[in-house]
Design brief:
Length: 389
C-alpha cells in the first residue's frame, strides 16, 4: 500500500483513495466513504465540482506556471476580486498555510524594525494555537507537543498568551512587540472558540503598544466558518490575514492579505516563492471565490453547521461531551476515557472520513457544499459508531 512506499510522516491510514464525487469518495477496493474531512478543510467545493474542474482544464490549456518576473491575467483578476471582496489593500500569494504564516511573520518583523528598531521584534501568538510545520511556524505554535528537542534550537522572538485571558493582555505588549497573531478558531488545538470581545480588546492593547495585529485564517478563511473570513465575525480588523487550505478548492495555494499599517511594508526582494500565485491556482481560486459570493451560500454553511451540531447533541451519547464550532468547522469532545483517534479509525472502517484535534476531540470539516443527503448519511454512521465505541 501507499504508506509503505511513500514516507509516512502523516501516520496515514492504509487506504488508497481513487476518486470522488461531491462529498463522497471511493478507495481502490471500491469502498465508499462520506467525506466529513475535505482534505482537512481544503476541498471546499468537494470532489469533481464541474465548474472547478472546467476552470482548471481551461487554464491548463493556456498556462500552468509563469515566472514571477511577470504577472498573469488570471492572477490580476483573482487578486483584484479578492481584495474587493475582503476589503484589503494588497495580497501576497504563496503555496501553503506555512508559507502564508512565514510571510506574515517576516512582514511583522520588518514592520517592527521600521517602527522601533531591532528591539521591536516579538511576535505574540495564543496558547493552543497551530501555525505550521516550518521552524518559525512551529515555534509560533502554542503547543509544547510541537516543540520536540530534536528540532531545537527554535526561532527566537515568539511568545504566547492564553486565549480569552483578560488579565494576560493587560501587561503582555510593550515597545518590543511587533505583532499579535490570533488564530480565529483554534483548529489543531481542539476547535477552540475565541471570544470576540476578548479578540478586540487584545487587538486594541497590541496596537496601543505600537504593534500590528494579524489573523491566522489558514483553516478558518474562505467560508469555512460561515463568513468569507472568520475575523470578519470576530471584529478585530487585522492588518494582516494569512490564508490557504480552501482558497483554491484543492489546488495548492496560500498567502497573506494586508492593509493599513501593514500595506507597503514588503518591497521587492523581501519575500518570494517560485510557484506562488501561478495561473492554475488563481483560476481555481476565482471559482471558489465566485461560489462563496453567490446569494445564500455562506448562510447555508451556517445552517449546515448548526444542523450537524444540534443533531449530535440530540443523541445524548454518553461518549460525547462539549460540541462546538462555527459554520462547518466542528469539534466534538470524546469522553469517558475514549480516544478520538480510536473513534476516527472506527468511523473510517464504517465509511465516514473525519479527523481529530488533539487526543480528545473529533474534528468535522466537510466540504462547504455538502448535500443534506450526505450530511444525514454521515451522521447516521457517526451515531451508530458512537453507540459501539
Amino acid at each position: 500500500m501507499g504508506s509503505k512506499i511513500v514516507v509516512n510522516n502523516y501516520g496515514s491510514f492504509d487506504v488508497v483513495l481513487t476518486h470522488g464525487q461531491g462529498s463522497t469518495v471511493w478507495d481502490a477496493d471500491g469502498k465508499k466513504y462520506i467525506d466529513f474531512l475535505a482534505g482537512i478543510a481544503v476541498n471546499s467545493l468537494g470532489h469533481n465540482f464541474k465548474p472547478l474542474v472546467d476552470a482548471i482544464k481551461n487554464q491548463a490549456e493556456k498556462q500552468i506556471h509563469i515566472c514571477n518576473y511577470f504577472v498573469s491575467d488570471v492572477g490580476v483578476q483573482f487578486a483584484t476580486e479578492l481584495l474587493k471582496a475582503t476589503g484589503f489593500e494588497g495580497a501576497y500569494f504563496g503555496n501553503s498555510g506555512g508559507e502564508g504564516n512565514e510571510a506574515a511573520f517576516k512582514l511583522a518583523r520588518k514592520y517592527g524594525y521600521l517602527n522601533g528598531g531591532e528591539k521591536r521584534h516579538i511576535i505574540y501568538t495564543l496558547e493552543s494555537s497551530f501555525h505550521g510545520r516550518t521552524l518559525a511556524t512551529l515555534t509560533a505554535t502554542g503547543q509544547d507537543k510541537f516543540h520536540p528537542p530534536y528540532f531545537a534550537p527554535y526561532v527566537d522572538g515568539f511568545k504566547t498568551i492564553k486565549a480569552n485571558d483578560w488579565e494576560a493582555i493587560k501587561t503582555a505588549f510593550d515597545d518590543t512587540t511587533a505583532a499579535l497573531m490570533i488564530e480565529c478558531v483554534q483548529g489543531e488545538g481542539g476547535v477552540n472558540m475565541i471570544d470576540p470581545a476578548w479578540a478586540k480588546a487584545a487587538a486594541d492593547a497590541a496596537r496601543k503598544a505600537g504593534a500590528i495585529v494579524m489573523a491566522d485564517e489558514v483553516q478558518t478563511g474562505f467560508g469555512r466558518t460561515g463568513t468569507l473570513l472568520a475575523s470578519d465575525a470576530l471584529g478585530f480588523e487585522p492588518e494582516v490575514v494569512s490564508f490557504a487550505k480552501g482558497v483554491a478548492g484543492g489546488v495548492p495555494m496560500g498567502g497573506i492579505l494586508f492593509r493599513g499599517k501593514a500595506n507597503g511594508v514588503f518591497k521587492a526582494g523581501d519575500h518570494q516563492s517560485t510557484f506562488a500565485g501561478n495561473p492554475l491556482a488563481c483560476a481555481a481560486g476565482l471559482v471558489v471565490l465566485h461560489e462563496l459570493q453567490k446569494p445564500g451560500f455562506l448562510e447555508s454553511v451556517v445552517q449546515k453547521g448548526d444542523y450537524i451540531r444540534k443533531s449530535i447533541a440530540s443523541w445524548n451519547s454518553p461518549n460525547t461531551g462539549d460540541i462546538r464550532g462555527k459554520g462547518l468547522m466542528i469539534g466534538v469532545d470524546i469522553v469517558n476515557g475514549k480516544s478520538a483517534l480510536e473513534l476516527e479509525k472506527k468511523l473510517l472502517a464504517n465509511g465516514l472520513m473525519t479527523s481529530t484535534a488533539g487526543a480528545n476531540t473529533l474534528r468535522l470539516v466537510p466540504p462547504l457544499n455538502i448535500s443534506q443527503e450526505e450530511i444525514d448519511e454521515g451522521l447516521k454512521i457517526l451515531k451508530s459508531t458512537l453507540e459501539t465505541l
